[in-house]
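**Paired protein data**
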Amino acid sequence: MKKTVTRLADGRELLYFDAHGDTVRDAPDRRTLDPVVSASEIRHDPLLDEHVAIASHRQGRIYHPPADTCPLCPSTEDWQSEIPAADYEVAVFENRFPSLSGANGRCEVVCFTSDHEASFADLGEDRAALVLAAWTDRTAELSARPGVEQVYCFENRGAEIGVTLAHPHGQIYAFPTATPRTATMLRNALAHRARTGRNLFEDVLERERAAERVILAGEHWTAFVPYAARWPYEVHLYPHRRVPDLTALDEDARAEFPRLYLELLRRFDRIFGPGQPPTPYIAAWHQAPVTGPGRDEFALHLELFTVRRASGKLKYLAGTESGMGAFMNDVSPESAADRLREVASS
């Protein structure tokens, strides 16, 4: 893999990731841009002991532009996008409308392919491996920055999720504090260790691998619908060897990941049968905080889920979920697992 680091016209960082070392990335950004001014701040909620990012400047971000003015497509003679190159494999750049910035963290955009009409599921295994390499590179670099406590790589896919740009892409957030879900998992992991002498994540994985909800099982990864799934179709993907974050995966796990992950995404697009629009989903990497108690107890894993519960029907976070944080799932995890096994691509 070759990484090329350059700058956009307003000073934001842009990185190209290429599979071959002889690729040259020297196209300039021809735009005239003012420096990014972010109004992001972090506020603390004492009742929940959680932090909330206030980023009112994001109201002005680009919203569903026409395909010929997509800011994530390669640049052309007539259109200068966020990516100056006429073509690219994987590109990462600082978000122009960040939720977190400066001392409050950093937000990056990850473009998986230059093909505007593609999706992650359309990628080949080599490209998926390159995306994994980019996620790993950014996790390592952002984790080393002062003030960064957790790195979160994720993809929002589909208008139903709230995506404002159709081009296949994900994001990376470098948080100044551990996220609420991570903090909760760490507390429970530490309590489990004190109570049993064992690791909570390892015990969960062992139980799930023996259950009826396994979707895919490789030599180094297992994908399963969790026993207490919150979402209609939700899959967790765990490496068999527990590691805190992407940087600690070994080469065997890295080599197997693209095949399994692409198969999961392709199955998601088949859940609701032929002729249905692409399945909206969120793919979320859970990584350990950079510092603090419990880092060694954490287990890297990916959670993939959709807000669609049936053809033409969405799972809304209404009164119990949004008001109380108490999830109610309309689809049993066992039937969701059955369906995800039925729609295998081979």
Observations:
- The chain has six helices and 15 strands.
- The chain has a mean pLDDT of 96.
- Residues 41 and 54 are 5 Å apart (CA to CA).
- The radius of gyration is 20 Å.
